[in-house]
Amino acid sequence: MIPVESTKGSVFSDGNRIYTLSYNPGIRVYGEKLVRISDQEYREWNPRKSKLASYIKVGGKVFPIKRDSRILYLGASSGTTASHISDIAVDGRIYCVEFSPRMFRGLVNSCAARPNMLPILGDACNPAEYQFAVGSVDVVYADVAQKRQADIIADNMDLFHADIGIVAIKARSEDVTSQPSDVYRASERRLRERGFDILDSRDLEPYENSHSMILFKRA
Ligand code: SAM
Hints:
By secondary structure, the protein is α/β, with parallel strands linked by helices. The protein has a single domain (46-218), classed as Vaccinia Virus protein VP39 (Rossmann fold, 3-Layer(aba) Sandwich), CATH 3.40.50. It contains 7 helices and 11 strands.
């Protein structure tokens, strides 16, 4: 596992804001600010728009995405977070799965100038649908905001032989009546039952209400 600091070069923090070194200088993906640092262009990574950035902002130290990682991204939406992962995994590949045709159109645009991002119109609950396009991956990242979040990522990790998982848990998608912290603990329990060890688990407040991020690996 590599700490956030060792991605230096592709991730930069000035102690307040976070940036990624742009894979595609001059181009904004979601209206983010572009800045020059040491003569290179970086894109501001907004923790209010990306749960992976908010994980770093709340003190998350486990960051398993490397320059050459192959990543399956479930719930890519129009590609906000996926584009920052694309800045980091420059020599890797991000398979971006999204099932909403409307979001998918934006995702296709985000992927157009980024050869390491591949858009896939598919349902994360049915990974066999996109098995032909993916092969094996190192990391599965899931942000699907629907029921059974732990099982959806675990099913994909099993099918694509991934050892590392990162899942954003939206408490209200699992159960609107339970305390978010109970939902997070139940998701961690479920991941352990599915054969994984929890590496880190953090509440994303104040950037995201009632969300946590769980990072885990195959036991
Ligand atoms: N991860 C995105 C980001 O940070 O840029 C935001 C994701 S948004 C919270 C959740 C997305 O998951 C939505 O675009 C939704 O359409 C998609 N989604 C929900 N269930 C899905 C499923 N079963 N398969 C594929 N996409 C799904």
